[in-house]
């Protein structure tokens, strides 16, 4: 046990560098994915046929195929069409596009739950559709989405591990090289697991705080009676 | 007779194969309170929604102050500022306090300054007797209070006409009185109102005219006296007999407690 502990302390600085990249990829993917997902969910719920079709196509394709395949298509496939991005950008693109598709579905669910009634109420005092969506529906839908959406940051954090396959120096990539250098794969991967667990734990704490802070007094969405 | 403030001409609504209502001709004069009664499913609520353009019509016209608001490209957001609406299920904005519910239209539609909007919103809350509930969220208010906030929200836009779509149907019996009280006061203040309701006591005492609708058309209209005591149409008589039977007991209890 002390042996592992010493080993852990020794490799920790290197692991933290990787963990930093992992967190950065997660934050970037989550943010860009949120913007994409929000746009796609709004398009799928409120837009005309053309935009709705586009949104549905995007969501189905990126939810229906493996992240790894999407990553390889961007990294190995696009150069064939004369488009070459850096590894980091490829990782960012794949993660945000993939996350966006999932986030779109979480958000769409709560947009539908808020429903036509609030739209009608907004329109009834002379607000336009866009204003009603922005000032009335979204503030409620986003709150409603938080519990289900909370899966996404955690899931994305772990999904970032695949980008080590295109040699982006995140946590898993670091782990692989440390394991090779120290000839201690078991110790290394257990250490990596602990770092992932710690990150997920922190993320969960932030998400729970978000859920509490956004609660509307007197409006208990979970406790709603049937 | 003066020009009506609101008028429908041959207004018709069809869903698929179903004719919801057909050729509705209705005139509402300024300051008048008109109550629409009739069995469920006769298109009363849909009629209100067609009047403020929340639902498209399949024929006919609606005029507000002599202007055809059903004309193509007429600005419907402008129309709805002038025709306030109160819904059966209140439909307050759940993420906003009572005050913010009333203010949001003033801020985002009328583009008032925050200070002006707050002042105006407080006045409207006072008008419905809820100034002390300004910072409560809808979830913290009773149904009757929520409905009064909804009335204040609509009034804040200074509408020319107010539409009420069964405003007390979703309320517990003991909360109906406070909402009807606010509406009766509005009528006394000469707000022009079009009210769909099953509250016959309210209809008899507050309405200037009652319109009886059935199966998508207007069967009979007249003063409360004419309809309640001298209905011309057999169907009107039957409906009123049935509904006073149903609601009469409750009303007696209410007036006893009031």
Give a brief outline of the structure.
Chain A has 226 residues and is mainly alpha-helical. Chain A has helices at 2-46, 49-64, 67-77, 87-124, 129-149, 151-159, 171-182, 185-213.
Please render the helix and strand layout as text:
The complex is a heterodimer of chains A (226) and B (258).
Chain A: H1 2-46, H2 49-64, H3 67-77, H4 87-124, H5 129-149, H6 151-159, H7 171-182, H8 185-213
Chain B: E1 6-15, E2 18-28, E3 33-37, H1 44-51, E4 59-64, E5 67-68, H2 76-82, E6 83-86, H3 98-108, H4 114-127, H5 143-155, E7 161-165, H6 173-188, E8 192-196, H7 200-206, E9 209-214, E10 217-222, H8 224-229, H9 234-257
Parallel strand pairs in B: 3-8, 3-9, 6-7, 7-8
Antiparallel strand pairs in B: 1-2, 1-4, 4-5, 9-10
Structure write-up:
The complex is a heterodimer of chains A (226) and B (258). Chain A is mostly helical and 226 residues long. Chain A contains eight helices and no strands. Chain A has helices at residues 2-46, 49-64, 67-77, 87-124, 129-149, 151-159, 171-182, 185-213. Chain A is flat and about 70 Å long. The termini of chain A are far apart. The relative contact order of chain A is 0.14. Mean pLDDT of chain A is 93; it is low at 222-226. Chain B has 258 residues and is an alpha/beta fold. In chain B, 41% of the residues lie in helices and 23% in strands. In chain B, the strands form two sheets. Chain B has a six-stranded mixed β-sheet, sandwiched between helices. In chain B, helix 3 packs across helix 4 (114-127), helix 4 packs across helix 5 and helix 5 packs parallel to helix 6 (173-188). Chain B is globular and about 55 Å long. Chain B starts with 5 loop residues before the first strand and ends with a helix. Classes of the chains: A mainly alpha (226), B alpha/beta (258). At the A-B interface, helix 4 and helix 5 of A face helix 2 and helix 3 of B.
């Amino acid at each position: 046990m002390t042996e592992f502990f010493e080993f852990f302390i020794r490799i920790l600085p290197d692991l933290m560098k990787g963990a930093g990249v992992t967190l950065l990829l997660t934050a970037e993917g989550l943010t860009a994915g949120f913007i994409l997902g929000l746009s796609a969910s709004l398009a799928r719920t409120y837009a005309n046929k053309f935009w709705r079709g586009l949104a549905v196509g995007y969501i189905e394709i990126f939810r229906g195929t493996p992240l790894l395949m999407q990553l390889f298509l961007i990294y190995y496939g696009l150069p064939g069409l004369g488009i070459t991005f850096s590894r980091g950008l490829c990782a960012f693109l794949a993660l945000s596009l993939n996350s966006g598709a999932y986030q779109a579905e979480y958000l769409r669910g709560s947009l539908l739950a808020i429903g036509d009634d609030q739209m009608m109420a907004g329109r009834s005092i002379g607000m336009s559709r866009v204003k009603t969506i922005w000032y009335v529906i979204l503030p409620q839908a986003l709150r409603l989405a938080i519990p289900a959406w909370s899966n996404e940051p955690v899931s994305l954090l772990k999904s970032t591990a695949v980008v080590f396959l295109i040699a982006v120096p995140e946590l898993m990539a670091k782990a692989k090289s440390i394991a090779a250098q120290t000839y201690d794969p078991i110790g290394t991967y257990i250490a990596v697991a602990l770092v992932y667990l710690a990150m997920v734990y922190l993320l969960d704490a932030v998400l729970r705080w978000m859920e509490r802070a956004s609660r509307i007094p007197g409006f208990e969405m979970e406790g709603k009676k049937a | 007779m003066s020009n009506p403030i609101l008028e429908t001409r041959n207004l018709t609504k069809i869903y698929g194969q179903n004719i919801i209502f057909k050729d509705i001709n209705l005139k509402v004069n300024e300051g008048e309170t008109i109550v629409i009664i009739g069995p469920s499913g006769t298109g009363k609520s849909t009629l209100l929604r067609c009047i403020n353009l929340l639902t498209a019509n399949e024929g006919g016209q609606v005029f507000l102050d002599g202007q055809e608001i059903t004309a193509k490209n007429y600005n419907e957001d402008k129309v709805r500022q002038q025709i306030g609406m109160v819904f059966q299920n209140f439909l307050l904005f759940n993420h906003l306090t009572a005050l913010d519910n009333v203010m949001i239209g003033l801020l985002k539609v009328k583009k008032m300054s925050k200070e002006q909007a707050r002042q105006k919103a407080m006045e409207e809350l006072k008008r419905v007797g809820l100034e002390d509930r300004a910072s409560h969220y809808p979830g913290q208010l009773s149904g009757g209070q929520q409905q009064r906030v909804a009335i204040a929200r609509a009034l804040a836009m200074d509408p020319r006409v107010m539409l009420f779509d069964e405003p007390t149907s979703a309320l517990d019996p003991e909360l109906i009185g406070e909402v009807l009280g606010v509406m009766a006061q509005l009528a006394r203040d000469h707000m022009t109102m079009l009210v769909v309701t099953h509250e016959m006591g309210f209809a008899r005492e507050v309405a200037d005219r009652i319109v009886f609708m059935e199966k998508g058309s207007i069967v009979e209209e007249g003063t409360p006296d004419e309809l309640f005591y001298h209905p011309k149409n057999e169907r009107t008589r039957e409906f009123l007999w049935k509904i006073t039977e149903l609601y009469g007991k409750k009303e007696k209890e209410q007036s006893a407690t009031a």
